[in-house]
Amino acid sequence: MARADKATAVAELKSEFEGSAAAVLTEYRGLTVAQLKQLRVALGENAKFAVAKNTLTKLAANEAGVTGLDDLLIGPTAVAFVKGDVVEAAKGLRDFAKANPLLVIKGGVLEGKALDAAGITKLADLESREVLLAKLAGALKAKQSAAAAMFAALPTQMAQLAEALRAKREEPGE
């Protein structure tokens, strides 16, 4: 690879690292081109799966300010750059790795923090962003409903108390 080609490749990888919310490093040894195409489809539009030389990836990551990947850049390495929902991409990688054991998840980086393979698996076990937001909205609505019921109960109880006092005063025995 000529020096200019390497500089271009490093610049492209650097822009991918800078524009991604996460990057997941995998070993793809033994996968066919058709299987890699299936993986790219499984990741969806919010992730880009790229095969790059380890030295170029290391240079690009360092230039982008991403640390903690040097130990993972051993052997044939491909990087999944995630621009959208990180959980969805992690699930796609995990599920594809289960179906194709030749794909090995090495680790990655999420918002500047290094993750090992177990961290990526934990990330994949999370529910999607939409589901978590829906649960949060439901919890907030439940709290608001409980508060509204409590505030509505206070005037009702006060009216019942006033009625009981009025009825007690009107009793003939007093």
UniProtKB/TrEMBL annotation:
Part of the ribosomal stalk of the 50S ribosomal subunit. The N-terminus interacts with L11 and the large rRNA to form the base of the stalk. The C-terminus forms an elongated spine to which L12 dimers bind in a sequential fashion forming a multimeric L10(L12)X complex. Forms part of the ribosomal stalk, playing a central role in the interaction of the ribosome with GTP-bound translation factors. GO terms for cellular component: large ribosomal subunit. This is Large ribosomal subunit protein uL10. InterPro entries: Ribosomal_uL10, Ribosomal_uL10-like_sf, Ribosomal_uL10_bac, Ribosomal_uL10_bac_type, Ribosomal_uL10_CS_bac. Belongs to the universal ribosomal protein uL10 family. HAMAP family: Ribosomal_uL10. Transmembrane segments: none annotated. NCBIfam families: PRK00099.1-1. GO terms for molecular function: large ribosomal subunit rRNA binding; structural constituent of ribosome. Coiled coil: none annotated. GO terms for biological process: translation.
